[in-house]
Specification:
Helices cover about 70% and strands about 10% of the residues. With about 300 residues, it is an alpha+beta fold. It has a four-stranded antiparallel beta sheet with strand order 2-3-1-4. The longest helix has about 45 residues, at about 155-200. It is rod-shaped and about 100 Å long.
């Protein structure tokens, strides 16, 4: 294809967009809304996965022993815990330290020892960390079989709930995007159909003087791709600045919540959203050309 010919196609596509301004505007707006939702679900899913992975990597297994467990048995249990495959570290928290931690939570004005009759009812417990989060459940099963272990606590349920939420977000996002995508393709197809109808006499003349089918088709295909491109550009700009603003607000209000501030998450989102617009526009144009332009 000659450069001059390609320039003619672009010129015709842009003229058609201006000529059908309001339909073009509606198409661009619909593409933008569809891709904003797509980008928002990408960012939301990415952050939910990130939070789940953070929580999962920080999972600690608390191994509580029976209160009357002898000190030598406590130490022996610690040696056994260290030998479990997949264990990264084992830390003993004596009952005295546990009472001190509890006293600090209640404040200096409360004498827990006196309130408890001078006795410490708390058990010794171990904090166990796994080398890999996936091994936590296997380690817990091994620990539960050991003697003198009364209870084992760990946060795996929280992680599983987070992954479940992520899965439903992804399913809901895909369904919503599919519906909006279909509506967008249809709207662009209607816009292209109006252009074909407005230029029907010109198209007949072009065919009469020997213009090839693709020479006639290309301006319409480019028009659809331009509409999609403008929509994806608007969506990317809105998503980019909105995400940065929201992350600053969330970090200030909920500093304990891990969110992705790395720009790579935005880059990955834009790499999906930007090509999606022209692709939707191309499909809408192609649909209209096959149905209404009989050449």
């Amino acid at each position: 294809m000659k450069f001059k010919t390609f320039g003619y196609f672009i010129k015709q596509a842009l003229k058609s967009i201006v000529r059908n301004f309001w339909m073009s505007f509606a198409s661009v707006a619909t593409v933008a809304v569809c891709l904003i939702i797509l980008g928002a679900f990408i960012l939301l899913t990415s952050n939910t996965n990130y939070i789940a992975q953070k929580v999962e990597s920080d999972v600690e297994i608390a191994v509580f022993l029976y209160v009357d467990t002898p000190e030598e048995e406590v130490r022996a249990l610690g040696d056994k815990l260290e030998k479990i495959p997949g264990v990264a570290s084992v830390e003993l928290v004596p009952k005295e330290e546990g009472l001190r931690q509890l006293s600090r939570q209640f404040g200096e004005g409360h004498d827990l020892v006196s309130a408890l009759g001078g006795k410490n009812p708390l058990p010794d417990y171990y904090i166990v960390k796994a080398e890999e989060p996936k091994k936590v459940s296997l380690i817990v099963k091994e620990i539960e079989k050991m003697p003198h272990v009364e209870k084992v606590n760990y946060g795996q349920g929280v992680v599983e709930k987070l992954f479940s939420i992520t899965r439903w977000i992804r399913i809901g996002g895909i369904a919503t995007i599919a519906v909006l995508g279909a509506c967008t393709v249809f709207l662009i197809a209607v816009t292209i159909r109006l252009t074909i109808y407005a230029r029907r006499k010109e198209i007949n003349i072009m065919k009469s003087v020997g213009a090839t089918n693709w020479f006639i088709r290309w301006p319409f295909l480019l028009e659809g791709m331009f509409l999609g491109f403008f929509g994806s550009l608007i969506a990317s700009i809105i998503l980019y600045f909105t995400y940065i603003l929201l992350m600053d607000k969330i970090s200030a209000a909920l500093s304990f919540l891990p969110v992705q501030k790395d720009m790579s998450v935005l880059r990955n989102m834009i790499l999906i959203v930007m090509p999606a617009g022209p692709l939707i526009g191309f499909l809408g144009s192609l649909l209209s050309l096959q149905k209404y332009l009989k050449i």
